[in-house]
Specification:
By secondary structure, the chain is of the alpha/beta class. The protein is 35% helix and 20% strand. It has two domains: 3-129 and 202-292, P-loop containing nucleotide triphosphate hydrolases (Rossmann fold, 3-Layer(aba) Sandwich); 307-373, Ubiquitin-like (UB roll). A hairpin with an 8-residue loop joins strand 8 (246-247) and strand 9 (256-257). Helix 1 runs parallel beside helix 8 (231-242) and helix 5 (172-181) packs across helix 6. The protein binds guanosine-5'-diphosphate and magnesium ion.
Length: 375
Amino acid sequence: MTVLGLMGKPNVGKSSFFKAATLKDVEVANYPFTTIKPNLGVAHVKTKCPHEKCNPKRGACIKTNRFVPVEIYDVAGLVPGAHLGKGLGNQFLDDVRRSEVLIMVVDVSGTTDKEGNEGQGNAVEDVRFVLEEFDRWLAKIIKKQIGKSRHAGKSEKMEENLMDLVGLGISEHHIKDVLREITPKDDCFDFATALRQRAKKVIIAANKADISTKWLTELETLNYPVFATSAAYELALRQASEAGFIEYIPGNKNFKIIKKLDSNQTSALKRIQEFMDKFEGTGIQKVLDTSVFELAKLVAVYPVEDENKLTDTKGNILPDCFLMKKESTAKDLAYKIHTTIGDGFIRAVDAKTKRVVGADYELKHLDILRIVSKK
Ligand SMILES: Nc1nc2c(ncn2[C@@H]2O[C@H](COP(=O)(O)OP(=O)(O)O)[C@@H](O)[C@H]2O)c(=O)[nH]1
Ligand SMILES: [Mg+2]
């Protein structure tokens, strides 16, 4: 499953983002998941569902908005010098190593200093130093790997030893590409930066935008997607929805009050609605969806066994929605369903056009496909 990692200095709202995104409210809840680590949870990306009466096995569907599960890590806050063991240390980096996309949460209002205490902050500088900490940590690991080959006295062993980095979510071709361009220097820092830039996508959640958006324009000059967010507001909305006060579909620009509220609650919700009018929602769902569909480059695909009724053999309508890499083929989808289905692949049928497609057919976002297999 795709993994997202929330990164940032302390007190920017990572845990609020995590809590809001993973809150098991009544509607987005039926995902069988036992938390092994307290900071690992299930969030959902939002996509379109072609059927109003579908029966999702995982995630949920609310008024043709299909919510598909992805994993998300909340990581301990990073302070300058973390790679040296300062502050909360390396636990942070262990958690993000599996993450394909790094969601950089920053305080766009600039009301927290570098250590996360109340004070003056610079959100652009925060992005820079957090990534630098990441790269320094990675450089330390690279240096150790290269050191191994020096001991062995064989420089050709270097590439082989560096291949161990695949355990950090860095693929072999990234390592080979970077090796072709950069020879690791003593501190391996530039090499680490180049690797991280290839292996990890970064997106910025310009959080606490409800306080002020002081640094937003400057953040937008960096080369990353940026969204103004309020994790606090998203959390409030999901909790209010869970408590039955409002009807709210995550990612929407508005909500509906369905219970009598006191004046405090009413004015709090009014403030939230004003924010949502200005930023087209709280931003949290946009960050999740952009991470998965644009940065991790996944497509959502619905496999079915009956291309007319859009059901499985038991009559469930669109029970599965799989997130697949953009270049994946019909055969890859068959393998995702089951190894024997993949091995016995004969053809696939596009439920929208009823056209037969072959093993090499490249999956498109929101495809509905029936796989015909020998098994
Ligand atoms: N105004 C405002 N406060 C927020 C927002 N997100 C988090 N906070 C507050 O910022 C503080 C730190 O939040 P937390 O999620 O624990 O930050 P973390 O240390 O990065 O995990 C808490 O008091 C939160 O209530 C936000 O979007 N807006
Ligand atoms: Mg936290």
